[in-house]
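Appendix B. One record, verbatim.
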Amino acid sequence: MLAALVPDARVPGAQAAGEPLARIVDAAVRPVMAENEVPGIAVAVTVGGRQSFFNYGVAAKDSGGKVTEDTLFEIGSVSKTFTATLAATAQLQGTLSLSDSASKYLPELAGSSFDRISVLELGTYTAGGLPLQFPDDVTDPDRMIAYYRNWRPAYAPGTKRLYSNPSIGLFGYLAARSMHKPFDELMEQQIFPTLGLNRTYIRVPQDQMGGYAWGISKAGKPVRVTPGVLDAEAYGVKTTAADMIRFVEANIDGAKLDDTLRRAIAATHAGYYRIGDMTQGLGWEMVDWPTDLDRLLAANSAEMSQKPNPATRLEPPLPPRDEVLINKTGSTNGFGAYVAFVPARGIGVVILANRNYPIAARVQAAYRILAALDGEAG
């Protein structure tokens, strides 16, 4: 079935409406664009290591330049999967231990609540109730340190999951400190190049700005992400559909990667906490596959992302498994992204858009594509 759906390794969707995979993607994506007034979407699909690209609309509403698989999009919190890869690399290299207290790697926090909060708890949003965003007055590193020093957990660490940029942002910050280099430098000079990602950035170079899409704000105005404290670690990556599907393929099968990087990626797929039907990895989130759409939507719901949920620690951690759907959503004010893949089936999809449209619509579109490819979803 998969071979029949993917007759060619590179399929520009707008010009291949007669191909089976193109029809599936078109049916999933075009209604989402129309219903949510999304200017442009880039979709990449991998099936057994064969890539197909489907590009829709424009990269900038005013200029009218068409989206391609090389258009740069903000991926928001999908960036956390790269942060997790860096942290797992640090652990393999022996500079970081997930079981250590956070304050071990940032002595300025000694004597604070972070003496009793582990690096792992930061990376899995189980530190005790760190909020979704920093308060508005946290605008520089000194104020960041002061904020963490004065913060007190609302829950016992490890008991509840509350999705948080300051939590995983600090996780990435500590990983970089353990490696004695700035986070941005480690990502752009080590992680991205080793993965073969040639157009993935924290800070987009000036000579690449022409390929950087403009997002659309809620008010319909052109917008790009505003720099903030720990933005690079939590939501700062800009990338293309072509690079992102390459990252997905590295997550599906890392056999061709450098051994340390292959093991680091596998470590991000380990299950550390169970929250309802969702298993929390490092950066990535997982549900058993096959699954039905309702369960996948619940795992990506506002209830899951905006409220504290009881978390059950998995001891020992659940080893990486193939029979799961591994996924992550991401948003900035003007962009929306979703990435999902099933290692056991060798299938994955990347959906990048220059509008922050509802997460449920992204999940539904991706599920429709993956279920059609697999033929076994519930």
